[in-house]
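Repro:
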Amino acid sequence: MSNTPNSEIQFLDKDKNKQDEIDLLKILFLMLSNWYWFALSLSVVFVITWLYITHTLPTYRVSSTVLIEEDKSSRVNIGSDQLLQGFGLRPGMKNLDNQLLILTSWSLIDRTLKELPFETEYYTKGRINEVAFYPESPIKVYVDSSYIIPRDIEFRLKVLDNLHFSIVREGKNTLAHEIRASFGDTIMLAGGRIRIEKVYGSYNGKNTPSAIYFMLHSHDRLVESYKSRLKATTASKEGTIIKLSLDGTNRKMDIDFLNKLMEVFLNNNLERKNLEAVRTINFIEGQLSGISDSLSITEDRLQKFRSANRVMDMSAQGQQIINQAMSLENEKAKLVIEANYYEYLADYLSKDMSGELPVSPATMGITDPGLGNLVVELANLQSQYFSNSMTDRNPMKAQIAQRLRNTRDALFETLKGVRRANELAMRENARQIRAINASAVTLPKTERELLGFQREFKLNDVLYSFLIEKMAEAQIQKASNTPDNEIVDRARQEGGIVSPKTNIAYLLALLAGFGIPLVIILIFKALDNVVKEEDDLKKVTDLPVTGYIPHSLSSDSIAVFGDNFSILAESFRTLRSRLQFITKEIKSPVILVTSSMPGEGKTFTAMNLAGIYSMTGKKVALVEFDLRRPQIYGKVGIKVEKGISTFLIGQHDLKEIRIDSGYENLDIVPAGPIPPNPAELIESSKTEELFAKLREQYDFIIVDSAPVGTVSDSITLARLSDATLIIVRHGKTIAPLLANTLNGITNNGIHGISLVINDISHQNMKYSYSYRYGYKYGYRYGYHT
């Protein structure tokens, strides 16, 4: 059978449907009750945000775009599809990814910064921030490269007048003394030699700041700084346009850096394209050096022979022989060029792999398709393997290395075949030349000699003309080369200030101002194991709450007699009414008042509950069964000479120990002297005898017992009682201890247990309980209902 009234059940069911709304209200009331913490948090956070915004240099974003042409040479790579198949990359996309890495590589940024005057930074300091001088500066520092000067150290220069200055090193390790010098003088500074010149112009006179700071940056740190800030992304998924961006505090420097970076990138691309033409030109120049000398010698010998023998033309037979011989000599010249190239290529393959690409056979007029394709494939693979983007961690590097070895091996075998074919062709050519020479025996001696000089000259002339033609072709190719890539947009500022964003900063400050204290309060609330509201009790037990006792400001022990129409008195009347649902069929019920720990107000509750019962005209006994730490006698001024302890040992009877409280219908049965064995006395049969006598003489018996959570005395008394009230003091009762106490009571078979929440402050009544139980009080806001 439930001890909760039907109206109470209906009210709780209705209130359960509004749980979410009530939880939000609780959070709101929690914030309102701690408004001062939120006000303090908002003030601190907004001050910090204001200081951050006003003391932080604004950051700007500059960007540029560059068009990357698809790598057309990759389309003719033999076997390139097999290489890329496992990675799902098309040659064009592979090239784009490589260009992204090259644009942000250390080597390219290093080359860029070497062409910019960024290693020496000039700036001045205001009250809040630093202001950089760029591109103009009031001074110029020249460093003597023969001396090593410390880097990344700040120096402060003070302009004394138009001719003189003083300089000191800033930081912890300052110079022992200030150095004074004139502009243009060479001075020793931090172990190095520098010369400082004053730049006359816009900073002359009043515009020149009195204190100028400068720093000589370490080149490596400067490169790392720009590398960490530089971002390169594709402008679209399908296109090959790359967007470069930099976030920094100096827009002009970042714009100049991006423009110079793109310029160096395009020049680097053009240099790579010109490498093949340069290698071809160098190869042809090596061949020409020997042919040119031979041509001059043979031409001189031919002229001298003609002059000496006065022979200019040959006979018809001789002319025919010379024509046949020249045809064979032209063929020999071509075979010699091919043989020289094969020798060069064999020497190239015999060396270790390097980043130098081989000269293409097509540039030397060699049209063998197998050899040409293998040389092109080798060049492309080496270009990928030795590129800046191919790091050791790249999973493709091992596959490319294997393909390089396979291609070199295949090229070795192909080269052996073409060299053998070349040797056979040269032998056949030599045989045919010998046959022509044999047919010239019939000619006169002078013509035979002229034929020899003329053939030698023609051979060198053909070789020289061929090489000169190839040289011209290579030079034209070099002159006509243009970069594969193209600048779309030069660097410019993109949008407004990147950071700090004032609106976002204050919005975050507002959220933090509310969020930080709220989170802290909720954490403390979650960690707080003290009962502060009824929801805390629901986490511990399902027992009903029978009464709600507000905080009492009265100095009277039994406060209900002091003001019969107070909130306190009305709360005890409500408790009395609810107890009737538990004790309505019981004559002279015994109501036990206990708690889980001392100091929760059980004695106060027992005394005032007894007083409110006595107001009904019924005879009430207030029994002090806390034999270990009795309190009632002290509150009402009773001398401890006899009481329950003396009754239980048989020294006195009930008539002798009960005392008139001075209030109508209310008697007090004190505890008496503190015995050495209270638990044994309470468990004796005399306790049952005492309760029997009290039931005969009184209408209600209110028992104040020891805390049931600390001693076992109250368990025995609870078995003899008709109702047990567990006092829960607001803001003091520890929830885990209360849970253990209730578990111990229920495990001992005690029934009729209910809870009473004691010492609720007016503020907590309003915020914690009034929305659910407000109408149950006689006074909600301080007036009688």
